[in-house]
Amino acid sequence: MPFVRDSREGISDHRKQVMEIMSRGGGVGTNGSTLRPRNALARGVNGKSSGSVSWLDDIAKLTHLVEQGGSRRGKQVGVPRL
């Protein structure tokens, strides 16, 4: 998968792509190194980032929601920002 863009729209677009791939029987690897670290300033909303691990956890939960072939769940590899 391409890198996740560090924005709400970027994360939303990535989740949509993950769901499409999972629904067709594929597995996905997500690199979260482009997402800002936890507690980093999120300008524009005057808040702090929840960090790459929380977003990767959210994306990984999609594997439990999308059934592949009616009987199995997809596979997901997430690489957080270190």
Distance between the termini: 19 Å
Low-confidence stretches: none
**Mean pLDDT across all amino acids:** 83
Strand order, main sheet: write it out.
1-6
Largest sheet properties = 2 strands, parallel
* Secondary structure tally, helices: 2
Annotation, overall tally of beta strands: 6
Q: Rg, please? A: 13 Å
Provide the β-strand percentage band.
15-25%
Number of domains: 1
N-to-C SSE series? HEEEHEEE
Give the helix proportion (percent range). 25-40%
Class from helix and strand fractions: alpha+beta
CA-based shape: elongated
Give the topology.
Layout: H1 8-23, E1 28-31, E2 41-42, E3 47-48, H2 52-65, E4 67-68, E5 72-73, E6 76-79
Parallel strand pairs: 1-6
Antiparallel strand pairs: 2-3, 4-5
Helix pairs in contact: 1-2
Describe this structure in words.
- This protein has 82 residues and is α+β, with helices and mostly antiparallel strands.
- The protein has helices spanning 8-23, 52-65; strands spanning 28-31, 41-42, 47-48, 67-68, 72-73, 76-79.
- Strand 2 and strand 3 (47-48) form a beta hairpin.
- Helix 1 runs parallel beside helix 2 (52-65).
- The longest helix is centred in the N-terminal third of the chain and has 16 residues, at 8-23.
- 16% of the residues are buried.
- The mean pLDDT is 83.
List keywords for this structure.
82 residues; alpha+beta; two-stranded parallel ribbon; two-stranded antiparallel ribbon; 6 strands; 37% helix
